[in-house]
Amino acid sequence: MATLSGIRAGAHSRPAPVRRIERSASEYPERLTHLHDPPDGLWARGSIRLPPDRMIGIVGTRRATEYGRRMAHDMAFELATAGWAIVSGLASGIDAAAHRGALAAGGTTIAVLGCGVDHVYPVANRGLYEAIGRCGLLLSEYPPEWTPRKFQFPERNRIIAALGSALVVVQAGERSGALITAGQALNLGREVLAVPGAADQPVSRGVHQLLRDGAAVAETALDVLRQLYGPAYDGTPTVQGTLFEADGGLPEAGVRGSAERLRGVLAAGPAAVAELSRLAGVEVPEALAMLCRMEIGGTVRALPGHRFELVRRP
Fold it and tell me: Can you tell me the distance from the alpha carbon of 148 to that of 307, in angstroms, rounded to the nearest whole number?
């Protein structure tokens, strides 16, 4: 059976090189200076630069249920479609689902690592790590060669908390690291929202405590945007900073448009790459790159003969 992974090598260039972002550099996020211990610099690998003020964090438990993964994926998808970069930690469970949702939307996502950007952790997320390295941004305060260490993951959480305008917690136990991230976000004056869960699930206890403590309810992406813009916000797009390519190429708005056109063609049924390219008005290399993102994100699946179809959700 032909799969997208079988043609992926020819559709993408080498991984983006690692670059150092010094605290004195213009690209260094001003939001990180709100921390009492901001990183002296950051190591980055990816195709985008950090947007100045258009990021939202989504975090939660590694032991996510199907409901939690779906909520994280769909919320990230909707926010990315609205032009927001999704920030998370590349952990299993909620983090991975949020990254995939952003990629599936043709948007961008930023993974803040608890190790150097040359390391994949957890190893099971290698495909996601590679997709973010091509289509988003891998970020760490640790040198590229540093291996994962237990204490580094709580440290990186403060960066996730600081980067976003808001933080959404999707499923968290009573002692979840996501609750620490939420506390850090509150201390920084960020909006904190929580997705309600089933009352009989241990992974709901942390988010329900956040709700009792005053966190806003997040059932949809619109809830998050209304928390930022006010209850009268109706979803009309707003201009608030931009994402742009580090080395030229399509702006993110163009990438999202390509994804929408490809989804529109596939809504009529499975299609081959050449046909998709022609009907969507997207060059074949760009279509392949976008289909890679959409496959990683769970929006499409590869079929024999370099054909693709939409993944239908129940």
Answer: 38
Q: Which of 249, 12, 20, 271 is nearest to 143 (CA)?
A: 20
Domains and CATH numbers, the chain: 17-229 (3.40.50.450), 252-310 (1.10.10.10)
Query: Mean pLDDT for the chain?
Result: 85
Burial (CB count <10 Å: 0-12, 13-18, 19+), residue 280: buried
H or E, element range at 278: helix 273-280
Q: Quick check: 13 pLDDT over 80?
A: no
CA distances from 129 to 114, 138, 161, 238, 270 (A): 13, 8, 20, 30, 27
Among candidates 65, 292, 297, which has minimal Cα distance to 198? Answer: 65
Q: Taking residues 92-105, what's their average pLDDT?
A: 94
Q: What is the pLDDT of residues 275-314, one digit of tens each?
A: 888 888 888 767 777 777 777 777 788 787 668 888 865 4
Can you give the length of the chain in residues?
Answer: 314
- For residues 76 and 98, is the Cβ–Cβ distance under 8 A? yes
